[in-house]
Amino acid sequence: MKFLALGNFCHSRRLLFRIVWLVLACAAPVVIAQSFDATHLLVPTDLNAPWLVHAGDDPAYARPGFDDSQWMHFDAHADIKTIFKSSHPDLVWYRMHMKVSPDQTGLALREFKLSSAFEVYVNGERILVSGELEPFTPYTASARLRARIPDRALAAGSMVIALRVHISPPEWGVQDPGLAGGNLAIGQEATLYRDDWLSVLGENLMEWLDRLLSVCLGLVALVLYAAQRRNTEYLWIATAGMFTLLQLPQAVISDFANIPLYWQVLTALLRLATPYVFAAIFLSFVHQRLGWGWRIFLIFAGIMNAYSGLQGILFTAPPALQALSNLPLVVLFSVILPIMLAVHWRRGNREAGILLIPIVLLSLYIYAEISLGMFFQIPAWHDFALRGLNLIDRFPAGPIALSLNSFSGMLSTVALALIMLIRSTRMSRRQAILESELAAAQQVQQVLLPEQMETVPGFAVETIYQPAQQVGGDFFQILPVGEGGLLVVVGDVAGKGLPAAMLVSVLVGAIRGVADYTSAPAELLASLNERLVGRGGGSFSTALVAHIAASGAVTIANAGHLSPYLDGREVDLPGALPLGVMSGAIYETSEFYLAPGSRVTFYSDGVIEAQNQLGELFGFERAQAISTQPAAAIVDAATQFGQEDDITVVTITRDTAVANAA
Predict the structure, then answer these.
(1) Is residue 316 scored above 50 in pLDDT?
(2) Rounded Cα gap, residues 383 and 403, in angstroms
């Protein structure tokens, strides 16, 4: 992910260290204007000289017949401030006389970084404009603009190119305001078009690719954060991607067309948050909190970063202040973060080691920029420093210009993507292990909760168990007891998933063990409670035990479970603590009679707590109303309403024929 917070570092360095040899204009006015010979033009050529310059504004300055013999001579390689030493006029006109071949066609002018507002005339006809001069509305100047020269102007064999340029106070504050070398060129329109596309792609391809990767990584991080809310680093990565996305339209569009400067101002204001966001990314990966000291420093760095981005747009700061405005950011990325990542890497944090690679590369880039900028001020080292700056900022790789800054940004994006990939792979392995454990637990649970029950003469038994996940926390046991009776146990462990299923296995095993020596409901619950206390990892379970004799006499004890329904009416049972809450709990018993043909229905709370899309619960009234229906119908009704928890339904119907025969 590109370090957007350093976007203007190179610009500030040029403002501080760039020295241009000034060529003084002619001391005396030129009496006869020289002409630029374009009759044998073979390749695009910069129009650097000879120009005539004059302050002020008059529409007549654009006319080819205007007398400009008293204007001052100007070479675009020089700084116009050598001519206007004491005054800084808002409007400056430039004129150039040019010889052309009447047979020439298809010639065009190309403008690049001339001014925030200007107009270009050929023989008095305006062919190119950017921004507004009156009232002054500045535009960006980073796009290469082209305009075809009218063939009628070429047919005369000579023409006059006139530039009406607005130079704002911030532009007067930098070197080479107004027309400078390379701002205007002439050539065949098709050739200029091809060259411009190659230049735009070559200069910006790495930056565009870096920004695109940052946005894509931010989207992936946002998805991961939605699933893993504890990993706040994903949220910060997504935020950085959002900031990149907000800046992307202005950055791309301004490479092809000049747009109002306030868009660049809005983009510069986003730099307020970039130090905070990018620092938060690194701090999150090393599990370090953003304390007040960090926050104050990062807020200050953001203010200075935005101030640096607005230089040359809204104002011009002194060179010393320009350098200081980037100092907090330089210290953050070239000193603090590398040391912090190195320390955590040495402590065993592999992710810190991965992030250390791009941050060290960025640090080396910053050190090289500062060092070469200082050498640039020494005349003897000027050429060496210039070659070094071009090497790290614009290394030619065919048509593409490689920048160490952009490369470190792309490398940081790759590093973050690699960490996310490693984490996802690790999580996939854990998920596979968990799924295998769940499958094993499901098989165990199927054994513990068999679908087919042993037939007991005199009773019709229906059981349905539908977990909310692969395995659940509901359990039931129906065991034949002596003299043709039944022992029914229904319960619900708190929670769902694998932990609840493991506790179910403990309880079912205990039920079968205790049932071997007693079928008394209260005694069975007390025994289960003692076995569960202190062994459930803080969990608990409800349970209900009913002993149904062959005569229809029912003895029942409850440990916090739902009361059953007898022929559609709720059986009134005393309340009691769930299993595993307190040692020595005592459970009361109740009795009722199950007449021939009568049915008793046991639920788990998954029936009652079924919930529809409106948030409405299935509730006790609906559960009671359908309690006389078959178990499968009850489960279907709750499931269609909206299953939220494990659902268990057990129905016991006393057989009329067997009961009468007895």
Answers:
(1) yes
(2) 19
Non-local (6+) Cβ contacts of 438 within 8 A are: 469, 470, 471, 497, 498, 501
The CB-side HSE value for 75 (13 A sphere, CA atoms) comes to 9
Sign of CA dihedral 178, 183, 189, 192: negative
Sheet with 144-148, strands from edge to edge, namely: 45-46, 184-188, 107-112, 144-148
- What is the model's pLDDT at position 647? 92
Q: In angstroms, what CA-CA distances link 22 with 74, 82, 455?
A: 12, 8, 108
Under a CB-based contact definition with an 8 Å cutoff, are residues 95 and 61 in contact?
yes
The pair of structure tokens assigned to 395 is: 């290394």
Give first-to-last CA distance, the chain, whole Å. 83
Q: How many CA atoms lie within 13 A of 52 on its CB side?
A: 24
Instruction: Please write the tens of the pLDDT for every residue from 583-629.
Output: 889 999 999 999 999 999 999 999 999 999 888 999 999 999 999 99
Q: Supply 244's token pair.
A: 């990149």
CB 128 within 8 A of CB 111: yes
How far, in whole angstroms, is CA 30 from its chain's centroid?
Answer: 61
CB 294 within 8 A of CB 30: no
385-420: b (≥16 Cβ within 10 Å) or e: beebbeebbeeeeeeebbbbbbbbbbbbbbbbbebb
Both tokens of 415, joined, read 């590093």
CA 551 to chain centre: 69
- pTM of the complete model: 0.68
- Condensed to tens digits (0 to 9), the pLDDT of residues 114-150 reads 999 999 999 999 999 999 999 999 999 999 999 999 9
Tokens 């092809």 sit on residue: 256
Tokens at 46, concatenated: 């910069």
CA-based torsion, 89, 268, 325, 382: positive or negative: negative
Number of Cβ atoms within 10 Å of the Cβ of 208: 16
How much helix, strand and coil, in percent to the nearest 5, is found in the chain? 45, 20, 35
Q: How far is CA 417 from CA 187, 349, 423, 517, 589, in A?
A: 45, 17, 10, 62, 63
d(CA 501, CA 449): 11
CB atoms within 10 A of CB 336: 15
